[in-house]
Design a protein that fits this description.
The chain contains 11 helices and 7 strands. By secondary structure, the protein is α/β, with parallel strands linked by helices. Bound molecules: adenosine-5'-triphosphate and magnesium ion.
């Protein structure tokens, strides 16, 4: 609603994991590099963790966007599914017709598909988001799935993406066989104060028509940092509120007072 007022072509602080808005902080860049390395070096398994709202799904989407032509991806979000249901979703997302098939038949269909992709020299990647919800039994089955291989390489790369509980689970003694196959776990930390500033400027720039847009004073950024703790999703929610307030109050540049007002509004909304 305020896009026109600030000359935005789109909302700068949406909460969708849109890779066009990816601000490449050191840690987001490292995560992208880790994923790229793991997938193209055919490590078999990789894992990305981070707190809620830190940008895990956005980084994964950025990776897919960058390498789409050479990838065949299936993207599944897990709740606590048993393995055969997960397998069904995976096959479906790869475009396989597996309606009515049992587990063995689905595995056979998947294997055939993986070999055909291998022959076309395409990288098949299974991305499991919200992987902290996977049970140890399902993780074990996934390990078996990653055993599908030719003599010289893995046929499928599996990327586990989830909250820090995922790392805890992978570090359990019973998970050591799987854990040994993962080349380090990539953890995305929250943003520091400087990155929060650059992050805000970057998103405003991407959304604006002429590459310019409203500015935040240094104190205003401090307030955003303090409120959000450096979590991108919380930054977005607050900045969206501040932009709305600015529109209503007819100001284009934001000081700490208007940010505090935004925080008050969000907090009173949480209470009601
Ligand atoms: N580096 C970044 N650059 C730009 N936007 C980002 C960045 N990191 C996160 N965001 C934004 O923050 C919001 C939350 O990101 P995302 O959904 O990727 O987080 P997540 O870690 O997957 O969260 P969850 O644990 O809830 O799944 C999105 O709007 C996303 O665009
Ligand atoms: Mg996510």
């Amino acid at each position: 609603m305020y896009e026109e007022y600030y000359s935005f072509k789109e909302l700068p602080f949406n909460v969708t994991p849109d890779p066009r808005f990816l601000y490449r902080s050191r840690s987001h860049r490292d995560a992208l590099a880790y994923i790229t390395y793991g997938i193209f070096q055919k490590k078999g398994f990789i894992a990305v963790t981070g707190e809620v709202g830190v940008g895990k799904t956005t980084v994964v989407n950025a990776f897919i966007d960058l390498f789409q032509p050479s990838l065949e991806t299936a993207f599944v979000f897990t709740t606590k599914f048993p393995f055969d249901q997960l397998l069904y979703l995976v096959c479906n997302d790869f475009g396989l017709e597996v309606e009515g098939m049992n587990k063995v038949q689905m595995l056979m269909a998947l294997n055939k598909f993986l070999i055909s992709q291998y022959e076309k020299n395409r990288n098949t990647v299974l991305i499991i988001d919200e992987a902290q919800n996977l049970s140890p039994e399902v993780l074990e089955e996934l390990r078996m799935l990653s055993n599908l291989e030719t003599r010289d390489r893995k046929l499928i790369q599996i990327m586990l993406v989830g909250q820090p509980e995922l790392e805890k689970m992978l570090n359990l003694n019973e998970m050591r066989q799987l854990r040994q196959r993962i080349p380090g776990i990539c953890h995305i930390p929250i943003l520091n104060r400087d990155d929060v500033e650059k992050y805000i400027q970057f998103r405003i720039k991407v959304a604006s028509v002429n590459g310019q847009g409203p500015a935040f004073t240094s104190e205003a950024i401090n307030e955003v940092f303090h409120y959000s703790g450096g979590t991108p999703r919380l930054i977005n929610i607050l900045c969206d509120r501040v932009l709305l307030l600015g529109y209503v109050m007819n100001v284009h540049n934001f000081d700490s007072r208007i940010v505090r007002e935004g925080i008050r509004e969000l907090e009173s909304k949480e209470i009601t």
